[in-house]
Amino acid sequence: MKKFLIVLLLLIFPAVTFAANPVKVPDEIFKWVQSTPRGNYYFNYQVCGYHVKLDGTLDLNQLIVPTICTYDDVQIQDVIQKRRWNNKSTKGYNILAGRADYLKFDLKNNTVQVTRRADIDKTFTELDSDTSGKPVKLSDFTGTEVACKFYREILIWAKQNNDWMIRRSRGKLSAKDSKLKPEDFPIYKIPLPGEEEDSADDKD
User: Fold this and answer.
1) Rounded CA gap, 88 and 82, in Å?
2) N or C end of the chain: which has fewer CB within 10 A?
3) Quick check: 141 and 135 in contact, CB under 8 A?
4) By the 8 A CB rule, do 139 and 196 touch?
5) How many CB atoms neighbour CB 137 within 10 A?
6) pLDDT digits (tens, 9 = 90+) for 124-161
């Protein structure tokens, strides 16, 4: 089975955990965003960055972010039961820990897409994966949704750390993009999920 991208890093660094989560997630690699009764949500701030084009330059409209959601026991049993209902294998699911999502934010079209979703066990080994995710408009998310806050916090962090992401990238800015003023980078222009609701509340 395929190892999740960060498994080696996970074994190296010390970690933090939450009461409902027996799986340790290193805060040197993953930034915690929120917890719900069913899971804890993190994104990999050491790896997230811009897509690299074939010519080695960065595509400033495509932000790639690996994330993890660790499950509580109730959610784990729910996943296993659904797989049984759908006649899918549950091999290895006795140590299911959660899921790993690869997010692609399209900053030009204001969408987010889960390009790959993988169930992972407690050793962060991939159990099964799905690549059928479709782009969803960020404006379609409401402030009451778990995803809304998660995506919002990721984008806020990216706006605050854009220069750092570029420096750590394996690609380089094109000649044209290297002349952009800071405020002209696409990351600073994308509306945040739930932003329209905030504006409406302010008017009230």
Assistant:
1) 9
2) C
3) no
4) yes
5) 12
6) 999 999 999 999 999 999 988 999 999 999 999 999 99
